[in-house]
UniProtKB/TrEMBL annotation:
Organism, as annotated: Nereida ignava
UniProt keyword terms in alphabetical order: ATP-binding, Nucleotide-binding, Transport
Name the UniProt record assigns to this protein: Glutamine transport ATP-binding protein GlnQ
Keyword flag Transport: yes
InterPro entries assigned: AAA+_ATPase, ABC_SmlMolc_Importer, ABC_transporter-like_ATP-bd, ABC_transporter-like_CS, P-loop_NTPase
ABC transporter domain ranges (all copies): 17-243
Lineage of producing organism: Bacteria, Pseudomonadati, Pseudomonadota, Alphaproteobacteria, Rhodobacterales
Length: 250
């Protein structure tokens, strides 16, 4: 049977998370519209698209933070239940920092993940070093710069070795040096075996980091597949226009 033209099934092997006809409707508008996408294990996938395309909403739907109007999220071949959600971690564009020191934020997350008290100090040290925040351990986390908070949030999210890390515009408003530090951390996370899904506006970032990309336009998946192909030979008009720096309005 032929599929409707608006459904693009990306040909991804080794799927960790799959959406099937995922739709989110509010006030009569489909903000996420019939998205069927597969996210491959061990890869970095970037979700690209213009403002308001539904990228953040899609990320929230696949993390189970909001319920879809219709469609499904399939995790490792099963429905997205509590253990599946526990195997995922999410970092928001403006990370949630606890009213504690930088080290205190890490200590608390280690405790929540069941790391015994005697093992926590060494792990806090290791995580601070990884994030390059050793000199800020005692500073209130909420006073860190945007880039520092993002780095802290990412290493904190890796506690418990999630299978998938979701990042919503982790380098929005960061300068090149902070962006590079965050990107290095994201690559480290992948090297440790975590699958990464990342919303970004930044074409250069997709080129630097992504193995797979998905492009959203007006809530619909315009195309998805390996970054090497899509970023050089996009097939859809919206993605082509976006890559060419043109203003595409549908
Ligand atoms: N919970 C919600 N209920 C209703 N509408 C929502 C909800 N969350 C987002 N929207 C709407 O869905 C649309 C897509 O929003 P979303 O934040 O996902 O876009 P985006 O692609 O991430 O955009 P940007 O790049 O500007 O952050 C917007 O019009 C937004 O107002």
């Amino acid at each position: 049977m032929r599929e409707p033209a608006n459904i693009i099934r990306a040909d991804f092997g080794g799927t960790l998370l799959e959406t099937r006809g995922l739709t989110y409707r509010a006030d009569g508008t489909r903000f996420v519209d019939d998205v069927s996408l597969r996210l491959r294990e061990g890869r970095i996938t970037t979700i690209l698209g213009p403002n308001g395309a539904g990228k953040s909403l899609l990320l929230r739907l696949i993390h189970g933070l909001i319920a879809p109007t219709s469609g499904d999220v399939i995790w490792n071949g099963r429905s997205l239940d509590a253990p599946a959600r526990a195997a995922q971690a999410m970092v928001f564009q403006r990370p949630v920092m606890m009213r504690r020191s930088v080290a205190g934020n890490l200590r608390f997350a280690l405790k929540v993940k069941g790391v015994p008290r005697h093992a926590r100090a060494a792990q806090v040290e290791a995580l601070l070093t990884k994030a390059g925040l050793q000199d800020m351990a005692t500073r209130p986390a909420r006073l860190l710069s945007g880039g520092e908070q993002q780095k802290l949030a990412i290493v904190r999210a890796t506690i418990g070795a999630p299978r998938m890390l979701m990042l919503d515009e982790p380098t929005a408003n960061l300068d090149p040096s902070a962006t590079r530090a965050v990107e290095t951390l994201v690559q480290d996370v992948q090297t440790q075996g975590t699958t990464v899904v990342m919303v970004t506006h930044d074409q250069g970032q997709a080129k630097r980091l992504a193995q797979d990309v998905a492009f959203l336009q007006s809530g619909r998946l315009a195309e998805a597949g390996p970054a090497a192909r899509l970023l050089t030979e996009p097939q859809s008009r919206p993605m082509k226009a976006w890559l060419d720096g043109e203003l595409y309005v549908d």
